[in-house]
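Notebook, bench 3.
Goal today: get a predicted structure for Coiled-coil alpha-helical rod protein 1 from Paramuricea clavata so we can plan the truncation constructs. The sequence was checked against the plasmid map this morning, with no discrepancies at the termini. Length recorded as 512 residues. Pasting the sequence as submitted so the record is complete.
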Amino acid sequence: MQVLTDENNTLHSTVKLLNVRLSAILEIVSIHETELTRHGGVTGVNGGNEGLLRTWREKVFALMVQLQSQKIVENETKRKEDAKISGLNSQLQELERSNSILNHKLADQEAAIELEIKKRTALQQENGKLREENAVFKKQEEQWSTHFQALRRSTEDVEKMLLQSLTNLNKTVSKLTSFDQRLTFAGSRIQFISEFLVHRDLQQKTKSYDEDGKDGEVIPDESTRENEEHLKSEVERLLKERAVLLNETKKHNQTLQEKTSALQEQYEGVIGEKNTQIGKLEVSESEKKERLHSLQDQLETKCEELEEASETIEELKLSLSKEKTTIEKEHREAMEKERLRNAEDMSMIEIQLNDVRREHAKAVAALKNAERQVSREKQQAGNMVANIEREYSEKLARCEKQLKSVEKERNLLMVRIREDRSHVVRSQPVTGRDNSTKGNRLLKPVKTSIAKQSLEKNRTQENTVDDEESESIKPIDAEEALTALKEIKVLSQQIVKLHDKSSDVSTSESEL
């Protein structure tokens, strides 16, 4: 297409140049016709010039007819080529529209795929975030489990301490019970001993009363006295031990009660704190478990959505590949059809171009022939102009000679008139109007005689010139000579212009 457009532009430029050359030739012809019509009567070669003009006009008319027919053919071919180019452009626009529609469809499908890919990436990011949160929650659960185990260990330690304290309390209680039993035993023994002593005292008293009754007097035995003292001292010792043991038991009971109350309060406080911590941990663990279950549910839903998105992406990819294959196939078929159509059009255009080139070659040959004819006629016109210039120069020379001779005759006539006047004045003096009128009447025949003499002299001079020149040349005034000089200048300028135009035409042909 670019080559054809370039060739079309070159043909248009050549046609324009041919039109310019034709207009230049027509101007030259019009100038020659005006010059020939102007100088035809003077040169006396009207018959030959008319025949030359007739042949020139016939050739120019034939050239104009040929150029006009070539122009019509070129316009017709240009119109056909423009119609074909417009049809090709319309088909190209339709193909471009269909291609743009297919490109838009592809862009739509690609945008949908990109949206699905973005959704998939967003789901993957959310899945990653959920997994990270799940890992964080698992770490927190592990931390809470470690804290819970540490609390359990601490509670176990506290329980062990409390159990130890309880065992110690039980031991002390058992000791206290043993002490109580010993005290009760000691008290029962003391009571038994005291009762025994009382009983023995009573027996002794009875015995003594009996012996008194018998003997009148009772003499206490030393062994009994020692036993009584020993028993009394033992009873006192036992009472002291009992008091000491009672004091110790009271102190131990008070300290045990204080320790047990303190341990119980501490244990209850620790157990309350541990229970509150355990409750909080259980609540947070339940919340974490619920959140973990919800996150797992969300993860499952996101995974399902991701699978669905991947399935849709695969389906879209398959449909896109199918559409691409179909579009490529249709585009390939359309391009093949368009290529075949363009090849046919190119062959037709090449045929037309060859025809146009042949016509152009014919036109160039005709133009060269016309240029040769124009150059010949230009030479003939130059020769004619040279002849005209030569004739005008000869006429000017003759006119100058005639002017000089006329001036000489005029001077002679003026001298004679002056002499005649002086003779008349001397012979007849002027007396009023009658004398002047008489003088004028006398001068008239003198002037007529002088004019006759000058005409006779001119005739004798003209007879001395050649016969052919005397037939063709008449006496010319000075104004006619000046007009002839101006015409010669105009002709010389036109010849220079014609020479410049011929040089321009030759340069344009060389460029072509």
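The two ends are 22 Å apart (CA to CA). The mean pLDDT is 70.
Flagging this for group meeting.
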